[in-house]
Design goal:
Radius of gyration: 16 Å
Helix content: 25-40%
Oligomer: single chain
Number of helices: 5
Structural class: alpha+beta
CATH superfamily of the largest domain: P-loop containing nucleotide triphosphate hydrolases
Number of strands: 4
Distance between the termini: 19 Å
CATH architecture of the largest domain: 3-Layer(aba) Sandwich
CATH topology of the largest domain: Rossmann fold
Strand content: 25-35%
Number of domains: 2
Strand order of the largest sheet: 2-1-3-4
Length: 122
């Protein structure tokens, strides 16, 4: 079962001077315990897709679904707190924490018990 999915997601950046369609009807699913790579040429929408999946932006069309609920139902802030973590290319990890502690950190500030956070982080 998919823990995260994009269904017919489209996104258009619009400035005062132009419109750029970064995503058009993208659908994909992600299952627990598997590794995925999003690849493509510069400007092909990789970062935009990841931003939509992480709840950092709202699709112009389509839905992001996490654990069977849409982001509209969950709320983007709750989704980021409970379902996803973003580590950027020029990542900003806490240097005094190891990788497990860095992954656990958002769950701990959300008051998730340490034991539960550790299991989920692993």
């Amino acid at each position: 079962m998919a823990v995260l999915a994009a269904e017919n997601v489209s996104y258009t950046y619009q400035s005062k001077y132009q419109k750029v369609q970064a995503l058009k009807n993208v659908s994909c699913t992600f299952e627990a315990g598997k590794f995925y790579a999003i690849i493509g040429q510069s400007g092909s929408g990789k970062t935009t897709l990841l931003s939509m999946l992480a709840g950092l932006g709202t699709p112009s069309e389509g839905e992001i679904i996490a654990n069977g609920k849409t982001l509209k139902e969950i709320g983007s802030e709750r989704h980021r707190r409970e379902n996803v973590t973003v580590i950027y290319q020029s990542f900003n990890l806490f240097p005094t924490l190891n990788i497990l502690e860095n992954v656990m950190y958002p769950m701990q500030i959300s008051k998730k018990p340490t034991k539960e956070a550790k299991i989920k982080a692993k």
